[in-house]
């Protein structure tokens, strides 16, 4: 019997080490491959770690001697929220986007409960916090480098080589994002946007301030100097991101913390009045400045950002009123925003208010579920500042977990190639000191590979430093970080960014581990838990063995197809064109075999077949059967894409372009019936496009070309006139129309004026 118990204890130790190791891998790698530009496959890779960690939590629960398992108070509302997010896929226009966003939140859900479960052990909780803060310190170092060296260097490089941007291996989808980052001059770290970086810093910065405060009180000179240095680095990075909303939230929560601290002093009445007055006056002043002036533009180039957010929220409320009960489906906000926004408002893909966007996407039911979560979460807040109870400490080999998980994390980052890459600036800064025979690209590769051991060592030293802190005394600072982040969610998209949503889930799990809330009266039977564990294991094996590799393979093929497309576009001779066309066609075909309803691949295949049909018409007018087959096949791809992405403006735009091309082809072949069918389809998609987004230059220009093609010169000129005054005419890349199209537009308008 004793041997059985010892074996069971050893088995539980193994499960704990594996689960904690998987969590550390996720905590280490996730912040550095964050952002909107990361592919579905790379995001899905992190599902393995969160699902795996949760699986071993379930196994540990099954190995416990207790017959019934107590439930944490937030278990039911969190499960209900997540279930409703998945259920919204049923009525979502873009089911692929809805499913993907729900899967991201599901992985965060598993991370939260895994962190909460293991953090009941104080030693493990400190380990998680040390890893999180060490990664935060590395990110702050990277942000400062990016702000003072990386971005200025790239701007100088592009000014001296104006054509260099055309040679950068980056898809047109992210080219505008890249240009926007260079123009804005704000640091964004490994996140897609500077405001998202601001949210990430908000979550961690109060904890760093708390560590400095404790070190200062303890009078440990060396550790105090290190803590102050890290705080200075964090504040410098915070300033570099130039997120005014983050500064405002940090200031308000800081004043709130002072007010709360003053309440516990002997002379609390006067302090309460003074601090409350200061907080109210500061809040009112900041609101007036944001609303009515451009006085804070030194913190960012867009002084009317608050006014713009009011317009986002106004449009969001209009969408919500039109979809009151069910919402539009998780992740589908962008496809409805353009139909309700004002002409002057910016193009955005989110409401810049997490709570409002959740309401828009999930309706009244989703809002009630969110309120249910907030009511249940109140007890978590009230019980978090009771005295720390002594808990049973389990055997844990921290050094082994850190070395194994850390090594794997940095190998993962190296293989993904997106973390501490030094970019092409290596050759810019070092080329004057190097022999001309040395290839700068090889040098860059060497520096890139040498950076990983260096940053790995910094990460490990950071973990060791933070492990020596007493995090139990930092609960107030911990709470300040969470409240600042949640306050920032009122003015930004935080929880819709994969890296940020995981960071919040981790912090919430760690904070909940401080709480002394009583478990729910309902307890889960152990037999049912074993059944759930078996089902979960089967699902995880299916997801990890087929789902994630499948998505990563599709991602790789999509990247290859974009490269093949660029190669096809620059071909000039017939033989080279044929070879490039075959390669591009094969790449798209491989994607569609794996994922038949992949919208982008279906659209690209339709356009490829359409252009080939038009080319055959120019070379051999008699080959009608081949042209007919090509266009018929293209129709299948267009319809398949539309079925699963009905409101997506990119789909509508591409479909209208395709049918216009088909109509022109059949008209030149004098196939009247086919031309009329194509004309109807062209009008159908063009009308849907302008209904969805009536004031965008490329769409107005396309609609004008369609009307001109159909002989409606007066209507075409009217659309061209609107296009001329569209606010995005001046933008480069895929936001506006090309220089050649602008010349054509002005020529037509001048002819019409005459």
What does this structure look like?
The protein is mainly α and 754 residues long. 74% of the residues lie in helices and 1% in strands. The protein has a two-stranded antiparallel sheet. Helix 1 (2-29) packs parallel to helix 5 (122-160) and helix 23 runs antiparallel to helix 24 (672-692). The longest helix has 44 residues, at 526-569. It is globular.
Distance between the termini: 101 Å
Describe the main β-sheet briefly: 2 strands, antiparallel
Shape: globular
SS element count, helices: 27
Structural class: mainly alpha
What is the topology, as strand order, of the major beta sheet? 1-2
- What proportion of the residues is helical, as a percent range? over 70%
Portion in strands: under 5%
Radius of gyration: 28 Å
- SSE topology string: HHEHHHHHHHHHHHHHHHHEHHHHHHHHH
Are there runs of 5+ residues with pLDDT below 50, and where?
297-303, 421-434, 729-734
Mean of residue pLDDT? 78
Instruction: Give the beta-strand count.
Output: 2
